[in-house]
Amino acid sequence: FRDAIRGVVDISTHLVATVITPPDGRYFASEISTILGYSGIQAHVLIIHSLERIYEMLEYLQPNILTVISTTIEEPRIPSSVQLCITFNGEQKIHTYRQLDMCHIDEFGFLGHSYDLSSWIPYNDQYLFETSGNGNTVVTALHNRIQPLLRLDIGHTIELSASDELNQLE
Fold first, then answer.
1. What is the pLDDT of residue 105?
2. Residue 41 CB-density burial (10 A; 0-12 exposed, 13-18 middle, 19+ buried)
3. Where are the alpha helices (DSSP H) in the chain?
4. Which residue, among 53, 51, 85, has the nearest Cα to 68 in the 3D structure?
5. pLDDT given at position 84
6. Which of 30, 42, 56, 129 is surrounded by the most beta carbons within 10 Å?
């Protein structure tokens, strides 16, 4: 996650991040803010009870990184201080700001990322990606010490970038 952020912004400078989430995503938002904190990025979690209040808080905080979990943000209301918008699983395309979209599955974590929502950089050092008979992506964790043989059909297809080959199941 940190390396994907580094591909877009200089994390050696003082950065402030804001994580926006509905109440049911608060635990995931806490995990994201902790990862950002370990990366040296000050992070705030805002739980959406009123979108109007969220936009007021964004104007007040003037974050450099805006992380949006399971909601849609109005681009014209994003503060100009934002250098990067982080989204998850292709839930929203950001047109005005640089975007980092993380492919995330609860059972495994981050499977890869995209800067344009059209090609993905898979984490082949962490996972084996295969295509099942019905065309869905099957993921196997390569370094899972708890359940080393866990394989999961994620229910949809992840389109990898042209330079990456997806292993085909026979």
1. 83
2. buried
3. 2-6, 26-38, 51-61
4. 85
5. 96
6. 129
